[in-house]
Amino acid sequence: MDAKEDIRTLKVAELRDRLQKLGLPSKGKKEILVARLAEALQSEVEVNGLKKKRVADDITEPAVGKETRKRSKVSPGSEDVGRKDEKPWSRLQSVDNIYKEMLGDGKVYPSAKTVQNLEFHGLLEDVLLPYFDQGLEKSSFLMLMMLMLNEKFDQALPTAWEPVTSYAEGMFEQFFKQVLCFLYEGRFSIIEATFAMKFLSNAIQSLENTIVRPCVMKICSLAMWSQLPEERRQLELQTRPELAKKWRHLLKKESKIKKQHSGASIFDSIEAKFLPWLVDDVIESFNKSEDNLTGEVISYEQAMRSFYGYTQKIERLFFTFWEDLKETSFSSAKDLCSTDKMKKYLAKMSDDDIKKLVCDQLKLARTQDYESFGRNLLETIFEEELKLPSAGRRAVENLPIYPDEKLIIDQSLIPNVNEATHSVYPLPKINLQFLSLPDYLERNFTLYLTETGYDVCQNLIDVIKRLSPYTNDAGKPSFSGWSKMSQEVEGFSMAEVRPSNVGWDFPALVRAEFSITTRAMPERLKREWDQLKQHDILFLVSLKHNLPSVEESVDDMRYLQSCVRAIRGCEIHEVRDEEGNLMNCFTEEGEWVGEGKGFKRTFTVEFDPVQYHNDAINGNLAIYPFFDIVIRRDARENNFKSVLNSIRDALVSESIAGDTLPPWLSDTLLGYGNPEDSTFLSMSDRCIHTIDYQDTFLSKEHVIESFPDHSIEFRGEQPPFKVTFCTGESLRLACGMKEKTEQHKMIVESTFSKQKESYAMGGAGNAVRFTPTQVQAISRALQPGLSLIVGPPGSGKTDVAVQILHGLYHNNSKERTLIITHSNQALNDIFQKLSLKDISIGEMLRLGYGENLLETEEEFDKSGRVNAMLRRRVELLMDIHALAESLEVQSIGEFTCETSASFWKMHVLPRWEKYLSRVKSSTDAETIVSEFPFLKYTTRKNVVIDHEDSMNSVMAAFGVISSIFDELEGLRPFEVLTSQKNRINYMLTKQAKVIAMTCTHAAIKRQEFLDLGFSFDNILMEEAAQILDIESILPLTMQQNREDNCRLKRLILIGDHYQLPPVVKNPLLKNYCRFEQSLFTRLIRLNTPYIQLNMQGRCRPSLASLFNWRYRELDNLPQTSMGKFANANPGFAFVCQFVNVEDFLGKGESQPMPYFYQNLGEAEYIVLLYQYMRLLGYEAKKISILTTYNGQCQLLSDILHQKCAGHPLFGMPGSVSTVDKYQGQQNDFVLLSLVRTRHVGHLRDVRRLVVALSRARLGLYVFGRLNLFQQCQELKPVFDQLREKPSHLALVEGEHSEMEMTRSVYEVPLKSLHVQDISHMASIVKNMEAEWKRQNAM
Predict the structure, then answer these.
(1) From CA 131, how far away is CA 648, in angstroms rounded?
(2) What's the whole-model pTM score?
(3) Beta strand pairing status for 817-821 and 1018-1021?
(4) pLDDT band at residue 615, thresholds of 50, 70 and 90?
(5) Which long-range contacts (CB under 8 A, 24 or more apart) does 929-936 make?
(6) Which pLDDT value is given to residue 587?
(7) DSSP structural state of residue 297
């Protein structure tokens, strides 16, 4: 039975109930219309794919701009919805009908699912754009256009504007202007105006788009000043000479236009009038913490001083001109700005007096405003001007650090965004520019705290549901379930509330104590609770007394609201066992105390004093004695407190000293000025024209290949090389900042020396043949200023980063470099490769908890480095002792660093100087060598001096001896400092030249670094596109950046904004507030110059073609077509294939829990294919199984553990992970599950698709529902390629992984086995396994 017949059989009551669930009216409509509406919305209920079909012929489609539409006309179909060949609007006859019957005609908010369904099926591309000329005058057409574009933004699609901006020239400009006109003229309803404002907000956030930007900039141009009163405009222009000059130029332009076009005027355009109208009619108040004209930050104190000056001016006017108001001269500013008192003052003034004060003296309004609107308007304007400035800075400084019940479960603060996406929310946004650094910090503080609240909310829901609380007979909460992350609180009491410090309102310290018991816990769980230590974060929860059951709850959030009374965060100060002994801490003697005795654990915790103070003011202190449960979270989830503290401290620092950001970088980071001003192009006085490239080049030919546009003069042909760029043009060309115009000269000098090579202190040479673009990236990063490097998958980002660090170390020996990454794995990859270079390991330091994962013999943490320094000191002193013996110097006792310095001055240096004077004019090699005073020592050390190059050889030998003393001098502080803590601090602040940490560790330790006087010259940030904007900025604030003494010289960001952004769990913050935007992405959007690496060496060219279309230029290195890359995968007909998976056991995707998507058919199929590969001899560690959802990842793991883990052959694959968590990793073979069968889901974000398709080197096999994914426009470039191969898995019999493959990767086998479905694959694997068992039994 089709959808139409099914609907007609429904009872009227059922039909109306169905419509109400969709949020549509069910009364006042004819039955036929109701049936038609329900029929049209049938597909919206499940939001899944329909086959693409051309819109009904009666909707006219005039040719606009392009004769052939770009949108694909594929017909994928979906068995899950209605008719396969129709779209949701197929039976509606016009755009007006679509808007009226499907979206409520602007009288009600349209269903979010309806909008989502229409956008997915191409309403914009297939109907609206071809109908553009006829529809432009209709509000229904404009609203449909805006709804579709807004939906694309809500889906975070990177190509949201492309359909409109690329369809026809001038289309977006016409559309944008028409939206402004409809808003200005009031032709939209309130609901429609809401969507229009959201559309404008999206446009304003897209200023990097070259078509959107000019339209948006017109509404905030100088022309809008024409709407100001003439007197007020002249008053403002008198104080802004630069604006006055521009205004005069605009007046000339206006006059010229009027002459050329009679009646035309810039000042009468909708663009000039719109923003003033918006300010007057929509915006009620402003934050007065920035200058209205310049946007420069004004501190609260400055704003108050300005306000006091303004009130004094008014008092003088009252005293001079109005006898009845002279008493105001004795009033305070606070009284003067009181609304009630000011109304009394103004009541004593006549209409003419009000007009004189507001229009003539203060110039706040025009005379015609008074004539048009009367006295009330002038009084309102005057009162608004006298409002106290906002105390925004202090408000943030006094905000609680921990999220409480209001932030966590109050829907007005964190709404359920899954119900509606069309609303406008009172939350700040992250875009391209910020008014000031405090504005930037305030926005990020609010969003970070909100994100934390959302995260804690999810933890709280899980815990409360598992505990299943109920009200017992005594009227108190009890629990019928349990959760490993929570325990009941016993004996809570306030321990200490210290008085506030001078100048602060809140207490200096708030401490409390409570206990839990671990008696009933399993041993493993008891160990987890016993591992809690100082500074860990806990949340205490007070429950309501009238508790509902889980079954009674409508949804998780409402259940949480009905259960939780209050929640407070706290930090552990100490933990004691049943006998009162401290646990998990160091004693005064420095010994670590671990496990405790007994089962009772007593926690002393510290609450946020600000939060406690607010509770005292609001009368909420009564909640503290009645906490019922304590909740712990994973340590990684509790870093929020350190980040929020760092943001708040940075805000305080900026308001006091104003030196938070480096001056040369500040404007660019805030989105102002020309981004090139922060690059080396504007720092000619600091550019490095001679660069020691160390082992970057493998040969002379490699140098020529790397600088094809230079005329090269070689001075030696043996690497390593030092390069001198003879002109600034030559340097810019080498750094990729200038197009070739002519040959520029450079000098390449070999620094190779046999002696240098002989005496080298270890280190592995570079084996990577860097491409010309990679050399450009290295060259640019070694220059001062800001450098951005975009690294596509497999393009060698890590190798480039290591070579940059190597170059910085050797070219700037006194500078200190900070390495920042998002993950410990990426940081360790860089650090391990760097430790193999010829960099003194004594000057390398790895901070944070990931150091123990380093696969090196050396310990690079703080204590390990100090101990290594002490060991190195002993080794060097032994060398000094051996040197003293070789010189037959009478012993001066046991050597120290100090006595070694004396030994150098008394015995080594004099001998060397005498030797030089004797052999100065000698050319006899034998004499030069035999007279060398340290020959006995060098011989004992097995160092051979070359007689052919005797003098250079001797100089090199003495250089090694000299370096011993130099190194000992550097180790002298470790000898003088006696405590381990002081030695560690010295290592951190002075000794280490290369310091590595994650962005999280930088935020946690920021204040500690500042207190120690930590400083650095360079920052290299890898995975920069995966780090939140604020987490990228915080490392810059770990040292003072005074303009007269700014130490930071370079900021190098390496990342890929076409891959996944930082993780933000709250969909509202991610899509609406753009909180997931990284600093790297923002700088790219601001058109900051960058270099994109353009050669990938990870995977076969056929696999690379699936993602290289996203990049400007991305080619393949030659090795990707040789060796194992050139041969086919044994047992497979293709190296890449999409395998269509139909319903398994009558089911496609499933959702056992909200947003916990699973697909049993795909999971079973992938496990079978994994077993097939293992039976063919593929190594398990070379196979990764990826999926796009956590639920599917869990299902795959369960099936693998059940069917493969204990099997003697199969075992577990190298990795089972989600795509998001696998970013930055790779493997030879990837089996990918797409899961969804009803809606594309978050794979529609092309960035996730790029990550998913770029993890495999040799083979990629994708499992999903082809007829769903191939109809998605954003995925079309990929699925057009995947559809070229059969959708059934094609296998080749008789091949196995150990055989020598002769079949080329491009050779299609003459005969292949096409697997029809899962049962067919199961039978193949079963037969192969039986054969394997038979062979192993023989």
Answers:
(1) 52
(2) 0.83
(3) parallel
(4) very high
(5) 929/953, 929/954, 932/957, 933/887, 934/883, 934/886, 934/887, 934/958, 934/961, 936/886, 936/887
(6) 55
(7) B
